Amino acid sequence: MSAALDKVTAPDTEEGVAEAVRAALAAREPLAVEGRGTKRAMLRPVQAARTLSTRALTGITLYRPTELVISARAGTPVAEIEAALAEKNQMLIAEPPDLRALFGAEEGATLGGVVGANLSGPRRITGGAMRDHVLGIRAVSGEGEVFRSGGRVLKNVTGLDLCKLLTGAYGTLGVLTEVTLKVQPAGEATGTLAVRVPDLAEGIAVLSAALSSPFGVSGAALLPEGHAPLGLDGPVALVRIEDFAESVTYRLGRLRAALSCFGEVSMLEGAPSRAAWRAVRDAVPLGAAPEGAVWRISVAPSRAPGVCAALREAFPARLLLDWGGGLVWVSGPATAEAHAAVMAAAAVAGGTFTLFRAPEALSAAVAVLPEEPAPLAAIGGRVKSVLDPAGILNPGRMRAGA
Amino acid sequence: MGPALSRVALADGEAQGHFDPMIRLPPPKPEILARRDGILADLGRLLPEDAVIGEAIRLRPYETDGLSAYRQMPLAVTLPRTTEEVAAVLRYCHANGIRVVPRGAGTSLSGGALPLEDAVVIGLMRMNRILEVNYDDRFAVVEAGVTNIGITKAVEGDGFFYAPDPSSQLACMIGGNVMMNSGGAHCLKYGVTANNLLGLTFVTIEGEVVRIGGQHLDAAGYDWLGLITGSEGQLGMVTEVTVRILRSPEGARAMLAAFSSVEVAGQAVDAIIGAGVIPVALEFMDKPCIHACEAFAHAGYPLDAEAVLIIEVEGSLAEQDMLLNRIKEICDRFEPISMKLAESAEQSLAIWKGRKGAFGAVGRISPDYLCMDGTIPTGELPHVLKRIGEMSAHYGLGVANVFHAGDGNLHPLIMFDANDAESFRKAEAFGADILRLCVEVGGCLTGEHGVGVEKRDLMVAQFTPRELALQRAVKSAFDPGWLLNPAKVFPLEGNEALAA
């Protein structure tokens, strides 16, 4: 994507966004839809002469800590929302990653960006994904019309849930202008157990045992190469507890006893524990080379060791596993051969893949997401036509020609 | 869940006749009604003999659901046993322009499974097998007709459970739960159905079978799983469901706190959440509800209280003590009339006994009741209860309120006499007023029961005409001919697809 700066429109009102879309529609001119553009290298490049940015559409519009809801305009930096929540000892449940380092971005992501990409961090394994906490949206359709879905209450089954449809649609079905999220109290304390394991299969077994315990694990990752800044040699399985201090102490003790049969267990508390999970969240231990490609593969955790073995056989893959092993971060050479190996490994394991970051030469040439079965693809085409009949919102972002 | 209008459901034809169902259904297609015998014969060739029902006496049980004030005999009922049979019926109906009404256990409180005169009901109750349980990856694959409790029963021996627990969980089926995005008393902590699914086997109106999601989190591409969940049978049918199963907590215990006013109880709830405590359940009952439950269950609820909170926490015994003591200290600041901390599982059950029997208890003091299901921002509770009290006086009908205080889901139980048509009409109008109030204060029409036919015509209170048109267009993308559960969810007005 190479939108010239003078072709960027950044309205500071929702109506301004709607006007910009209507102008593009009238001119039959596709729009690259983004927040601060921090994830342009994600998925496919957009072919558009003009960029519509929500970066100027900022501000928290409602925050009711006792009702566990926060609303903000789409261009609000995630960091600003996290800071407001932290003042009331609350947090974003899905723990969205800060991918500045991975994408070489200078600015942090916006709320609209992490919702549009449905990005979740380690807490996703038991706390749910970003999309699970989107209670309501306001958005502008490809016809320049403002519409709402959901609301600002925690339980709502009124009408079709278009919040789910737009979350993770990468701006292809509408331009998010405001999002309301469910939030939660932040744990008073946190602690992590690090279990040194001989191989990935044993590591998955550790995570499975922890997640099958009654101790409310809120993070379960596996670092094949360890994480040197924290003195962790790999492969190492990490298990996190977040709760009231008494509970954290008690549960770490019980878990430590339960997991000691797998190998040597060490404990990280307070700041080192937080640092470890920030690193996992942001895929730091992956050590992705700047010129290489990054994939995310989603599988049933027990299938992850097989996926990893297949990838290591195909190319010099670096790996990081989160979500109990169900999320496999992969980095490797940005080649069609490596991509084919990722696609095959995901398919064999019954999972899905995303070409998360790649040079345009690769991402424009391959399928960055798995193909959908024909009936679903047809429905998807019709849904796209409903929300963006002229196909002007982020054309080609997810799939070529769509 | 008490069948709210069971007496009506069992009444004879004459008694039903004096009900003038206010719900309008789209005009049946005359050419379909005329072909009824041929359609039954065709279905009989597609399915095993015992899977097609055409005789009036055997169709009768399918004429209504949990909202039994509304009833309509269907054209035919089919009871397929496999995904392929469901697909065959849908393919046939699609090819012949025949409307379809999907049905699980028929426990919908919003009329979601109400048949149409020219529709084939596809009942999923025979698809009741648990296909796979996987503890390593913590999921279960079940057919759509497995009951909600059936999933937990299948895994509880190994210490696991399926989290969403609608109060109809003994009867309701997972396929229906998916279609209504069912909640329950514990969703403050564990989320609703949408948050506990991994995959679906989905059958389109054309009879195409598609796997959505799988055994992994976050499928790539558009979130079809999320869109289909809660779609009330508008987009397609679900025949198999992959659910997440969770390890049960070490234990759970309840406490009860009684307050002298609704406002004070609401402040106590705010203070509990504000202190960072998320109980696994946080239930509120108002005075009429307390009295009804106490008379029924003798649970020891204080009759001088204006509001009672039932609060449940989970964890080890020491963790339960720690949490209950924190909550008790918070409640103490609001001068409770009384508090009772359960010291055993038995005492917890006793505290829950009244609440769990609330619907039945109200049924004892009133011939019939309507169970409403709005959601409000929790801070609006005192205002909303005051307005509901005024409406109660205006309509001359009693009301008892049960409230999931943590998530804002309000269940007013409106008491009326089903043998008195005027009383029923008043109850309907009262309920509509309550739901409009929920929207007015920033909430919504339905938190967990669904729109169905019951709240269809109130959708205009929550959505603009253009927003409704957009939702209808998304349905049309799945079901261009509007054959799937038509007449539900969306107002009939302005819907050309359903015009005669």
TrEMBL record, chain A:
Residue stretches making up the FAD-binding PCMH-type domain = 1-186
Q: What is this protein called?
A: FAD-binding protein
Write the record's keywords in alphabetical order, separated by commas.
Answer: FAD, Flavoprotein
Q: Which InterPro entries match?
A: FAD-bd_PCMH, FAD-bd_PCMH-like_sf, FAD-bd_PCMH_sub2, FAD-linked_Oxase-like_C, Oxid_FAD_bind_N
Listed Pfam families? FAD_binding_4
Q: Which PROSITE patterns match?
A: FAD_PCMH
Parts forming coiled coils: none
Q: Does the keyword Flavoprotein apply?
A: yes
**Is Flavoprotein there in the keyword field?**
yes
Q: Which residues cross the membrane?
A: none
